[in-house]
Amino acid sequence: ILSRSKPALPSKNDSADSSKRNTSLKTNMQIEDYLKKRDYTGAITLLEFKQHNDQIENVELWVAYCAFHRGDYKKALHIYQQLYKANPELDNLAVNIACCYFYLGMYEESKEFLQNVPSSGLKIRLNFHLSHKLRDEATLMEYHQQLQDVLEDQLSLAAIHYLRAHYQEAIDIYKRLLLQNRENIALNVYVALCYYKLDYYDVSQEVLGLYLNHYPDSVIATNLKACNTFRLYNGATAENEIRSIIDQSANAGFGYDLVKHNLVVFRDGEGAMQVFPSLVDVVPEARLNLVIHFLKNNDTKEAYDLLKDLQPAVPQEYILKGVVNAALGQDLNSPEHIKNAEECFHLVGSSASECDTIHGRQCMAAAFFLAGQFEEVLVYLTSIKSYLHSDDTFNFNFAQSKTACNQFKEAEETFLLIQDPKIKNDYIYISNLARCYVMNKKPQQAWELYLKTENSPDSFNLLLLIANDCYRMGEFWYAAKAFDMLDKLEPNPEFWEGKRGAIVGVFQGVVAKKFPVDMLGDVLQLLRSSTSNQAEQIAKVIRKWAKEQRLSIT
Question: Do you know which Gene3D superfamilies this protein is assigned to (predicted)?
Fold first, then answer.
């Protein structure tokens, strides 16, 4: 994000003997070798050893520089602060301290320290980034106007575009800079990061290869390659990619938190509670992934508490906040949370950058789903069906919307594609599938669904749904059975009336030769178990008709 120069190493003792000068020159060359290899740990070890022999001047500046680039910002800050107390006029010392504060997430401290720093390109760039971090749009635009058409300033501008999810704008800047100087091959990593964020994982992988061919041991590039592999294939393959840099990042310090975080993701959340909590607000995705972990474990309240104070800035944050509010709203039957979720989804789905992406259309579908506008839901889900045809969650939402729009045949087919046991055991799934069976003239399959869930807490509601839907569709025999069971479970005049009407419907169907005569025997059995006085009267009418038709029923 920030561009800075190496600390100068001016000689303070021109009268030193030639032997000492040669030793110092040799040491400087050794340090340069370490820096070219990006071995900052080795450089620090050499510097601290030489420090005891007084073989290098301004050694603290070198150690601080290496510590900063190694990712040990606390150590760098401590050294710079000690030097600042001794000599506050030392060139670039104050702005270096501000940079350390920035990388430690101490944005207010960084901003305050910069106030006394002389004007420079680095100060402008750092203030530019601080304005973004502190969500100060006015000063962000002010410092934006001060940026020049030079490499460092343009890199800062591209970085802000990236952080604000303006990935194509960032790519345009990086590609222009690459055209100006092809030797800046690290820019390919930034381009690859942008393509990763745009879901172009194969393109990202191809661009990334241009850098990895020169620096195969790069922690950041190898980590990104593993992330692309995870998206393109699976977690196990991604873990194999990242394995080569686990020890390297642990020893170097730089990037270790990122690698540790991604290993949990690749392992499908294994060890999440041991890793994610300590990385919240250190690795940006750690908070979001911890929320996802809580959601997967049905701990909606913990997920909500993690996100309630977060002001979303990028689509992923809006989406996750929407999901959490939707889940909590359904758990608590809270219209306020549902409304918040609807707004989050609508903001993402209607944004220019996301409206034509898969996630964007899913968000619009979710917003309309929560609003009960299922015809609109189907418009958006149908447009992305070919990409998600084997996704159980997608099919669950698609089938529910089909059911709500009375497209029961397609809804049944979609419900039956789902394999996830958790979804298939959900009452929403079972009840909607039962309704589809009844509406598609398959009441027996709906009844079998009830029998499988007879001992569950929701069995009574399912029975009531089957009874009413079967009655409405003229499937009177199963309606009669369902109302009979309801009346036994919870005696209620309404259940008897439903049972009575369904039995009469069966009788009418037999008379009209729509149902087999054998059903009358089963109907009489249901009437015998009834306590209403009307039951015997109906039974007499049925027996009389059967006698007139010379039919034998029991």
Answer: Tetratricopeptide repeat domain
Structure-block tokens of residue 459: 């069995």
Burial of 56 (0-12, 13-18, 19+ CB in 10 A): buried
Count of CB atoms situated within 10 Å of the CB of 399: 25
CB atoms within 10 A of CB 502: 26
Q: Which of the four pLDDT bands, split at 50, 70 and 90, describes residue 6? A: very low
Measured between alpha carbons, how far is 205 from 228 in angstroms, rounded to an integer? 7
456 in Cβ contact with 430 (< 8 Å):
no
**Cα gap 329→343, rounded to integer Å:** 13
In angstroms, rounded to a whole number, what is the distance separating the alpha carbons of residues 225 and 237?
11
3-state helix, strand, coil in the chain (%, to 5): 75, 0, 25
Structure tokens at 433: 């599938």
pLDDT, tens digit, 9 for 90 and up, residues 127-183: 999 999 998 999 999 999 999 999 999 999 999 999 988 999 999 999 999 999 999
C-alpha to C-alpha distance for 21 and 11, rounded to whole angstroms = 10
The closest of 319, 315, 328 to 365, measured between CA atoms, is: 319
Q: Which two tokens stand for residue 17?
A: 């003997």
- 481-539 pLDDT, tens digit per residue, is 999 999 988 888 999 999 999 999 999 998 998 888 888 888 898 888 887 888 888 98
CA distance 524 to 533: 14
- The burial class, CB within 10 Å (0-12 / 13-18 / 19+), for 215 is middle
How is residue 255 written in tokens? 């990037």
Instruction: Using the CB atoms, write b or e for 20-41: b if 16+ within 10 Å.
Output: eeebbeebbebbeebbeebbbb
Strand, coil or helix: what is 391? coil
Burial 306-329 (b: 16+ CB within 10 A, else e): bbeeeebeebbbbbbbbbbbbbbb
* Separation of alpha carbons 66 and 31, rounded Å: 10
Q: Assess contact for 377 and 401: CB atoms under 8 A.
A: yes
Alpha carbon distance 102, 399 (integer Å): 49
Radius of gyration of the chain (CA): 35
CA–CA separation, 372 and 268 (whole Å) = 33
Structure tokens at 9: 């190493």
Query: Nearest-CA neighbor of 424 among 395, 388, 461?
Result: 395
Please state which of the ranges 325-339, 353-367, 404-418, 519-533 shows the lowest mean pLDDT: 519-533
pLDDT value for 339: 97
Strands (E), 382-530: none
pTM reported for the whole predicted model = 0.74
Residues in the chain: 554
Amino acid identity of 305?
A: D
